[in-house]
Prior knowledge:
By secondary structure, the protein is α/β, with parallel strands linked by helices. It has helices at 11-22, 53-61, 65-69, 105-117, 167-173, 249-259, 270-276, 301-304, 313-330, 335-367, 371-386, 394-399, 405-432, 437-453; strands spanning 3-7, 26-30, 49-51, 73-75, 77-80, 91-92, 100-103, 122-125, 128-134, 139-144, 150-154, 157-160, 179-194, 209-213, 218-223, 229-236, 281-288, 291-292, 296-298.
Amino acid sequence: xxxxxxxxxxxxxxxxxxxxxxxxxxxxxxxxxxxxxxxxxxxxxxxxxxxxxxxxxxxxxxxxxxxxxxxxxxxxxxxxxxxxxxxxxxxxxxxxxxxxxxxxxxxxxxxxxxxxxxxxxxxxxxxxxxxxxxxxxxxxxxxxxxxxxxxxxxxxxxxxxxxxxxxxxxxxxxxxxxxxxxxxxxxxxxxxxxxxxxxxxxxxxxxxxxxxxxxxxxxxxxxxxxxxxxxxxxxxxxxxxxxxxxxxxxxxxxxxxxxxxxxxxxxxxxxxxxxxxxxxxxxxxxxxxxxxxxxxxxxxxxxxxxxxxxxxxxxxxxxxxxxxxxxxxxxxxxxxxxxxxxxxxxxxxxxxxxxxxxxxxxxxxxxxxxxxxxxxxxxxxxxxxxxxxxxxxxxxxxxxxxxxxxxxxxxxxxxxxxxxxxxxxxxxxxxxxxxxxxxxxxxxxxxxxxxxxx
Length: 454
């Protein structure tokens, strides 16, 4: 029987196990942590996930679309909480019927593992970490973290899905001509919470992503099925306004009262959450090649960890799985050829979404409350409605399509340069008079010019 080894039982590893099981492989998944389904591993370690079209496409391919719909909350747009306590109108993510989905990372991971285990030949091995990899033998050296017993496993193909600090990638770094870089934002994040309303229900609008943009820092909140919200504070580690200056209960309370006064009454556990939860970093990692010894491949964060500000970390990792599966079908599971095509297809797109994710951090914290930015988004919607096939806003390209990320980045750069040239006065005219013939004619000219620049 054909065998596949997967290192890492996170979201991407568990989904890849499902894809390989559908291909008839005996699949062994090795995970250094205990089985999360049997332990309460605690909060504060991850940001709620925003599942969108790329991820949904992969989940649909393994038959999980129905199960996912039962555990996700649609978010149709952003609600902006201003510093004076007022809330701006909903900024829709796309057209009517387009939305992203708030979903629990842990809940989704548990579902994927459980579904994978329903296949007779899929086995998860917990408390087992990777130590080294032998590309000549296609063999992984593993260790049981409880007994410290070491052993090896061999397979026809090996997938490393062991995260941003991948041990398998660490083995590859030691080899010749392996490019690797990592870049940290000066910001970290802290997970906080808003409990359900007394008697049940939500204390904020549930079908929106809430943002408190404050230029160099921000707070966001995503809904959970139980009526609570998972909140995340993004803040610099050091500086005048930073985690470094929030060391006492009094400092934390004063900081939130000054910058997020409207949400403080909704967060009775603010101080306990703040000091009880860790402050993880925000890292972008890039590397190449992703393939080692023709039959060993990096996937997900192990190949391309990104910051979370476009909600595409999981979605891009899931797209790795679906693209790889399509290539395996197309190329008859000739794994050296499949994996080479996979890495050359996905690498430019991984770099593209990495750049877009960092850019979106600036957009979320600095621009969503900016009048000119809001105006540009309004004009983009007019252009898209008039020419839905010819003009796609950046968010639509990234979130509601499977257009390659690299192409979405390229097009967005053309859009930005054009809108800067167009000037605020022209955009105001279009935004204020979208139904007038002159404005419609002008939009036609704009789309034609943008297409010419493509």
